[in-house]
Amino acid sequence: MSYPTVEAFVGNTPLVRLQRMVPPERNNRILAKLEGNNPAGSVKDRPAVHMIRRAEERGRIRPGDTLIEATSGNTGIALAMAAAIKGYRMVLIMPENMSTERRASMAAYGAELVLVSQEEGMEGARDLAARMAEEGRGLVLDQFANPDNSAAHYESTGPEIWRDTEGTITHFVSSMGTTGTIMGCSRFFKEQSEAVQIVGVQPEDGSSIPGIRRWPEAYLPKIYEPARVDRILDVSSDDAITTTRRLAAEEGIMAGMSSGGCLHAALRLEREVENATIVVIICDRGDRYLSTGLFEG
């Protein structure tokens, strides 16, 4: 008998209906795509495995090579898992203010961590990754410019949602970090129906929401195509935190702050429409944020 490896269980995550946070009299549905059910606990499992798999197929890498990536957390954990599965050395560069659970998860999978200051942030992490690659210290998969990132969602996330909603989805709400999720899903949905509205979520000016970015122009992900997003909603840190706590307490779904930000935007959208099926990406699990105080208060 042949048994699958853990790689086979990336994707096909649950799509569940929110019961208490949506007023029943409005005849709208908000469906949550629970990406925390992936093996390494986030939506980033999909592009992590896909980027490595495609790089192998093109002959760019082979087991034993060193991979380098700048990450704020979830991509790093997912890449560390994928590297462990496939036999690569993984070097991850991240801001020092990321949660201890994230760092510990990466280390548990055998990754080497390199920290930059909070002030340098993700921009500094990306610059350091590029310098290390130039020095010949490894290959950067570059989630921000790699089309295999968005292709993972075009080939899996989008089709899963279309299948599970039986093509009734009217609005798709996703955070914007690397923008891989929203780019890949938008491309798929628009091929099925131009009527599906694609809504991106970013932090409002002055707010910080882990996993969602408002990039300076020079650091905009190269895979990002503005025309694929119909609307962008800004969310405050306070609203993201409050909604994350409500999601756990009222719906039994414990997730990270970026998911709360997405859901806050989806709830705002829900008040504007009728007879809608709104799908929101719940990016990861909340247990990797316990040390940050996210669920205290």
TrEMBL record:
Keywords: Amino-acid biosynthesis, Cysteine biosynthesis, Pyridoxal phosphate, Transferase. Its cofactor is pyridoxal 5'-phosphate. Residues 8-284 form the Tryptophan synthase beta chain-like PALP domain. GO terms for molecular function: cysteine synthase activity. InterPro entries: Cys_synth, Cys_Synth/Cystath_Beta-Synth, CysM, P-phosphate_BS, TrpB-like_PALP, TrpB-like_PALP_sf. CDD domains: CBS_like. GO terms for biological process: cysteine biosynthetic process from serine. The modification N6-(pyridoxal phosphate)lysine is found at residue 44. Gene3D superfamilies: 3.40.50.1100. Pathway: Amino-acid biosynthesis; L-cysteine biosynthesis; L-cysteine from L-serine: step 2/2. The keyword Transferase applies. Its EC number is 2.5.1.47. Pyridoxal 5'-phosphate binds at residues 74, 177-181, 258. It comes from the Bacteria. SUPFAM superfamilies: Tryptophan synthase beta subunit-like PLP-dependent enzymes. It catalyses: O-acetyl-L-serine + hydrogen sulfide = L-cysteine + acetate. Belongs to the cysteine synthase/cystathionine beta-synthase family. This is Cysteine synthase. It comes from Alkalilimnicola ehrlichii (strain ATCC BAA-1101 / DSM 17681 / MLHE-1).
